[in-house]
Amino acid sequence: MMLTDITIGQYFPGNSFIHRLDPRTKVIVLLLLIVAIFLLDTPWAYVGLCGFTFLIIRVSGVPLNMMIKSLKPLFWILLFTFLIHLFTTQGDIIWQGWIFSITGQGLKQGVFISIRLVLLILLSSLLTFTTSPIALTDALENLMNPFKRLGLPAHELAMMMTIALRFIPTLLEETDKIMKAQKSRGADFSSGNIVKRLKSLIPILVPLFIGAFRRADELAIAMEARCYRGGANRTRMKVLKIDRIDYVAYSFLAVVLVGLSVLKCSGL
Q1: Which among 238, 235, 237, 247 is positioned nearest to 21, based on CA atoms?
Q2: In angstroms, rounded to a whole number, what is the distance separating the alpha carbons of residues 8 and 74?
Q3: How far apart are CA 123 and CA 140, in angstroms?
Q4: Which of 68, 143, 184, 186 is deepest in the core (most CB within 10 A)?
Q5: Which residues cross the membrane (predicted)?
Q6: 200-232 tens-digit pLDDT
Q7: Full-prediction pTM beyond 0.90?
Q8: Residue 251 pLDDT greater than 90, yes or no
Q9: Beta-carbon neighbour count of residue 184 at 10 Å?
Q10: Do residues 158 and 140 lie in contact, with contact meaning Cβ atoms separated by under 8 Å?
Q11: What does the alpha-carbon distance between residue 124 and residue 3 come to, in Å, rounded to a whole number?
């Protein structure tokens, strides 16, 4: 797997229906869909949810290959999760060999859990693909504002999360450059045992951490030079506003959730 396959934190500019939604709407819709993913437990309900996910990906205009690339970094986790449920879930045995046995319940559970993880990754990636970091920061801060009375630093938390997402692609790009520079000097990261491979990563981690701290220091200096004072009396060039398009999205989501609930309650 190449580091360029990791797409988390990237923004894909566009003017689709999904792009034009208020960022708060997209965050709320994502949270509701995550709840639905964990509550569903019937085959046809998952088919409906998968179809809805594919539909909004097509509507967003984000290339399908970018969405698939977002799954590549977690391929081995998905495979491991599937195998764990496949071989450890008790039930009616459909295959047995040596110390391993596969049950019908294990196969079903492994498929369901894997689908859940895939949908979570796709929907979360779609949020960052269709929402700029600034808009995402404003949305998170606005949604957390009611908790300020409890002492929650809404602005600071939103800013930290967004900066972390924003710098993931930058750090991955820098890691790729360091690895190519080390390989050009004869470094080998793919041969030898595990201990040797871990030792070979030290020449990568040291300059990477130094570069990360340097970027953090430059960002802090730039914010101070612009008299940044956190969320106090902060104004915005674009004020968040729920529009007609957002009500359309909420209505469509309500129809989808009701349909999924009917499929779940009917046992299909």
Answers
A1: 247
A2: 11
A3: 17
A4: 143
A5: 27-54, 74-98, 110-130, 150-172, 245-263
A6: 777 777 888 888 888 888 888 887 787 776 666
A7: no
A8: yes
A9: 8
A10: yes
A11: 19
Burial 97-112, CB ≥16 within 10 A → b, else e: eeeebbbebbbbbbeb
Structure tokens at 199: 């030792």
Cα separation, 208 vs 100, in Å, equals: 43
**Each residue's pLDDT tens digit, 156-200:** 777 777 777 777 777 777 877 877 787 787 777 666 666 777 777
* HSE of 128, CA atoms in CB hemisphere, 13 A: 22
Identity of the amino acid at 44:
W
Query: What are the structure tokens assigned to 179, written together?
Result: 């690895």
Give the residue carrying structure tokens 């939103």: 158
CA angle 174, 203, 167 (to 5 degrees): 25
